[in-house]
Every structure is written in structure tokens, then in C-alpha cells.
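Sequence in, structure out.
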Amino acid sequence: MDHRKFIEMAIEKAQESVNLGGFPAGAVVVQNGIIVGEGISLGNKLHDPASHGELSAIRDACKNLTTSVLSDCTLYASMEPCIMCLSASMWSSIPKIIFACSKQHVSHEYYWGQYQSTEINSLFSHPLDIIHFRELEESSLSVVKNWENFGKGSII
């Protein structure tokens, strides 16, 4: 599987989110090498605090595949998923999340706390395989930094 390609696409979705006035987070859900769901983070524009990139991608994949079980899919995210998006991944049976930008590189306010996703994940009945794809961390972080420097909106 070409993880780099899908992480790059998630980062492109993050930039699309910023271009539309949203938070700098994007995600794609992949099944058998094909993108089946895409998401951007427009919670502030849609007045929906659950409209995060990962959750939007999960919703899109479930709709496109007409299922709520994504057990043969991988979620690729531009940023480390928050607790809500981690939980949604677990509830949709996604076995693996691959993300670019670690939450250690951004403000704690982005995640509304200092919890450790790995600790929470370890408490799930079926913990997810969570992989930090460091090769593109700077690329994802540059989208975040540009958003911070040029008039960010709401963090949701």
C-alpha cells in the first residue's frame, strides 16, 4: 500500500479545508487501495462540532459503501485524530489509522486537553493500529502554521 500517496491526499484535504475557511485537518478512508471516503474539517462553517475531517471521511465512506462497518479500510489523516475521531474509528471498526502531524507539534487547545490517544486506544476491546507517518509531518504542519499565521477561524 502506498501510504505516502494517501497521507499526501489527506494533507491536500486539510489545505482544501483551510481554503474553505475551516480547520487545517483532512482525511481519506481507503479500501483495497481506493479512496472510498474523503473529509475536511468545517465544523465552524457548518455549526457542527462533530464535523472533523476524520469523522467526515468516515461518514462519506459509510455512505458510499452503504455500511457502518469499515473493517477492511484504513483511515489516513493529516493530523493525529482527536479522541472523538479515534472513537468514531473504533465504532466503525476501522483497524488502522495512519496520520502525519503529531499532536505534540500543535497547541493543546486543538485537542481540548492533554490526553494520550495511545492510552485511550489501549482500553478499547479491539485497539486500533495507530501509525505516525513522520515523513510528511512537516508538510502537514506547514498547512497548520499557514492557517495560524493567516487568520484562523474556530478550532472546531
